[in-house]
Amino acid sequence: MRCIGCDRPTDRSLQLTTLFAHGPLLAPRLCHSCLSRFCLITGATCVGCGRMQPTEQLCSDCRKWEHQGRLLHNRALFAYDASMKAWIYQYKGLGDYRLHVAFQDLIAARLRHAAALVPIPSEPKHFELRGFDPIIGLFGCLRLRSWLRKTATERPQAQKTRQERLKTPQSFHVLASEQMLNRARQITLLDDLYTTGRTLYHARDALVAAGFKGTIDSFTLIR
Amino acid sequence: MDLAGAQLTQPELARLAVSNIAQATVVPALVKVKGHWRCQRCRSQFPVALPDGRFYCPECVTLGRLTDQDNLYRFDQPHQPVGDGRLTWHGTLTPDQQAASDALMASVTAGRDHLIWAVTGAGKTEMLFPTIARLIQQQQRVAIVSPRIDVIRELAPRFRAAFGTTPITVRYGGHFDQTDSDLLLATVHQLLRFYQAFDLIVVDEVDAFPMNGTPMLHQAVQQARRGSVAYLTATPDRVLKRALHRGLGVSRLFRRFHGHPLPVPIIRLMNLQKVPHQLPAAMITWIRQVLATKRVCLLFVPKISWSEQIADVLRQLGLKTAGVASTDPQRAEKVMAFRQRQIDVLVTTTILERGVTVTQCAVGVISAADREFSAAALIQIAGRAGRAADSPDDPVVFFTDRYTLALLAAKRQIVMMNGR
């Protein structure tokens, strides 16, 4: 198989542990040198949002979220550095859908034991423009439950300042019935990027308002 | 604004605020040929399906995505000349260069493609000047392209000096501005924004990455041309050599402009197990000896991560060192500092293997047996040395722990070219 980053034969192969583990069997699609351009999150992180920091304490952002109910305990794979920005630009900005499998093996390994995976949906307008849903593209290798719908907002989050982002109003609707929601004990929300946390906390609030009683956490590709 | 010859997408038209698209020919971006989708911009035939049922072309996606619902706008009105093409370069060509220049002129007049097979440092750029000047004086349009940004950066000031009265457009790396000039200097990718626009396209370093192994870029040249194409290289690949039998004109130049032979590389076997954390003592001695002869030293390494690591090791030895790689945002500044001799040793990946001229510069290749160094790459690297007439014998050393065919082939070809 060829690396989708550099089109050279890949030097990462399936591990024996993956072969016998629970969940889908997914091959690595990036070679070592392409993967090493990105900064994997390792070591101590904030327990609230998963950002890399020297200690495991709550960061100042998460202390504010703590006042608005339980924290999401977000986990993330990569830090948002220049090469990740470039990758996201090619995937979401240019719309190069080929890249959606780039991290499938790492994502599947981390979410193997998650109960119910609920992706953050993209706006219908953006879907029309891109021709794909970037979150479903990234996490499509797993069994997803499309329980949320997003109504159109005036501007995408990426074009706003931090303060404007935090003031974004709720735009999520829950499609599933209360009974169906509560069949799951735990929900993991999926998104590509955790920046301020506003989007994910809105999604959580929508699920709670719809009557979900279990715990909600989240997983993003990037923090 | 003159859009003659441009081939643009809808977002590009919007960005340039073009309102008058009545004169453009509108073609669908992707067409179905014999049941297969084909991109009309880059001619590749492997579009990718999107979940909503559309298809897009992944080969040229970096210039803006094209799907089967999009259109391309081709502006095929005649080009309005803006410069006079007067040559403000007053050097003289050597008899060899003159012969090659005349052969190129003859090929272009006959509408033939031409290969200039010239050793590194033969003065290829100067040979082009008379032909380009004449074409522009005849109100024709010329593009000089290369797969390497560094080559274009290096060429731009030289062309600006040689054609002082002719406006020149320089374009690379996503930057898009006006299209109205008689002479374009650009990376090969940029030709995808033109359709049958140029009477002569000069492709410098045609066998360099990424043009080798990317048919899309060769197609980009083909669809932007209206007349001849001239290929320039020191190491033509098999495809070009085969084309010689099929009517491709050729000029061979196996002597540098100063008349001295190419420096022949010395292959030195040594234990390289501790590289890049530690360098063999013999290598450090060599570097010190080189610096003692008032030369600077260019060290090539096979991996991006090595450039900084080895630069660190040398810095600890008290040498003025910098490391560059394609990922380095400051690489232009570092190369500039090296050229001005503020830096003595520059550790680089193969990005500097071509088009870079530094006078009195010794060249070393660390781990020359690595697969990254093909024979062509090694010949190009060896060609960085001995560029100036006052030090034609700069040393070139390949440090390696084993012999490879590429190493021997590179050395043999250099000896062969010296013998002609």
What does this structure look like?
The complex is a heterodimer of chains A (about 220) and B (about 425). In chain A, the strands form 2 sheets. In chain A, strands 1-6-5-2 form a 4-stranded parallel β-sheet. Chain A is globular, with a radius of gyration of 17 Å. Chain A has helices at about 15-20, 30-35, 60-65, 80-95, 105-110, 125-130, 135-140, 160-165, 180, 200-210; strands at about 75-80, 115-120, 150, 170-175, 185-195, 215-220. The longest helix of chain A has 12 residues, at about 80-95. Chain A is built from 10 helices and 6 strands. Chain B has about 425 residues and is α/β, with parallel strands linked by helices. In chain B, about 30% of the residues lie in helices and about 20% in strands. Chain B has helices at about 10-15, 95-110, 125-135, 150-160, 215-225, 240-245, 280-290, 305-315, 330-340, 375-380, 405-420; strands at about 5-10, 25-30, 30-35, 35-40, 50, 55, 70-75, 115-120, 140-145, 170, 185, 200-205, 225-235, 250-255, 265-270, 295-300, 320-325, 345-350, 360-365, 395-400. Chain B has a 7-stranded parallel β-sheet. In chain B, strands 15-20-19-16-18-17 form a 6-stranded parallel β-sheet, with helices on both faces. Chains A and B meet through helix 6 of A and loops of B.
